[in-house]
Amino acid sequence: LTPDQLAAMRITREIDERNRPMTDEELEAIFPPEGYELVKPPASYQPL
Amino acid sequence: MSGKKVRLPPEVNRIIYVRNLPYKITAEELYDIFGKYGPIRQIRKGNAPDTRGTAFVVYEDIYDAKNAVDHLSGFHVAGRYLVVLYYN
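Output (structure tokens, whole complex):
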């Protein structure tokens, strides 16, 4: 493994950790308990 | 949006906090403005006197969130300039 491959691997591992899917409970815990409402996606919304 | 192998500063994360939104902004408008940058996991809109005009937008991918923040800061919506920050 060359040094830059090693570095790329480390970045990937770190990004994957920060990008791992969050459960609803984790999301729930992050936000302030009141004052906010969930916005229902419009029927026309297709994720890219 | 393919994930680029570039290092991301620590404050970058998938949840962005938006201020200065028009009070009567609709779900369609929110998803239209923020959906351009990537799939959205969830949007929460402020509905209390002290949270009105603000929202949280959660992206599925951290690079999309970064892309949104980079492009949307100062975006002009209905006479207001959006303030877009990472929420942590």
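The first strand of chain B starts at residue 15 and ends at 19.
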